Amino acid sequence: MSLIIVMVGNPLPEGIETVAAEVAGAFGLSPVSGRVLSPDRAMELTLDDAGDATEIADILRQALPLIDIAVLPAQGRRKRVLLADMDATMVVGETIDELAAALGREAAVSAITDRAMRGEIDFEAALDERVAMLAGLDATEIDRIAGTLTYSPGAETLVRTMAAHGAHCVLVSGGFDRVTGVVRERLGFHRDQANHLEVSDGRLTGTARKPVVDAMTKLATLRETAMTAGCTLADCLAIGDGANDRPMVEAAGLGIAYRAKPALAAATSVRIDHTDLRAALYFQGYTDSEIGDSTA
Question: Whole domain around residue 205: which residue ranges?
Fold first, then answer.
């Protein structure tokens, strides 16, 4: 099975094909065809044979440091399932930090969030500690924040394009369901799954319903969604940014780290560090003519 090198930039530099061909040649491989996916933005080269995709991608990143690169098998590129994290992936920032800001506790909560996303502390324990700090917050503050989210560039384009081509798209988050429901509708996901904050007399109690959505929940959701869609994990795309996304990203046929923490970036050779979420479509071989136009 041959490999395909996909390169996405903003814009792509001149002579990039030559650089990629030279790197492939160092592994005894040669391009047999090329295709422009987006003028000046994305292109692919098909190689004559298979090789170590991870090593090739690593060398290409060294040679092309501002380019997002994927080296993938030529077969099975179009995925039938999209499983996506929400915070710092589909939306900018962490919504729990914004909730804490309403109580003047953003710094304390953000520090715990950062450690949890880096995999330095247990996710459930970190969630419980942070949610406890939200006790007393008016529950309508969740809805206010959900209505003012900043969406990651290309997020809606990614979801709606894959859905239009038959993929089942699920948003799965260690965040909160009153937020993921809004994001699901805004971006076009078929379903969402997240944690539920307990409310009493209109205010947060400082507890989340158990069991919580954690890394293993995300992996289980990936498996369940694949089964429901009648496909295998090889037919799935999973994307996220933090340590709790690692199991699903490692299990998916196409696992993507989006502007990720080191714990996740080390888990996959496919990363988006410089461009936007449309890169996940180019990695699958979509061209501009197939991609829906959206501002988000």
Answer: 78-296
Contact by Cβ (8 Å): 70, 257: no
Indicate which residue of 85, 97, 241, 276 is catalytic: 85
User: In terms of domains, do 186 and 273 share one?
Assistant: yes
Q: What distances in angstroms separate CA 245 from CA 54, 139, 169, 256, 271, one per listed residue?
A: 19, 27, 16, 10, 13
Per the annotation, the verdict on 85 as an active-site residue is: yes
Number of domains in the chain: 2
Q: Which of 68, 87, 192, 276 is catalytic?
A: 87
Report the pLDDT value the prediction gives residue 219, as an integer from 0 to 100: 98
| Amino acid 19: pLDDT | 97
- The answer to whether 87 is a known catalytic residue is yes
> How confident is the model over 189-214, as a mean pLDDT?
97
295: pLDDT strictly greater than 60: no
User: In this structure, are 12 and 70 located in the same domain?
Assistant: yes
In whole numbers, what is the pLDDT of the chain averaged over residues?
95
What CATH number has the domain bearing residue 41? Answer: 3.30.70.260
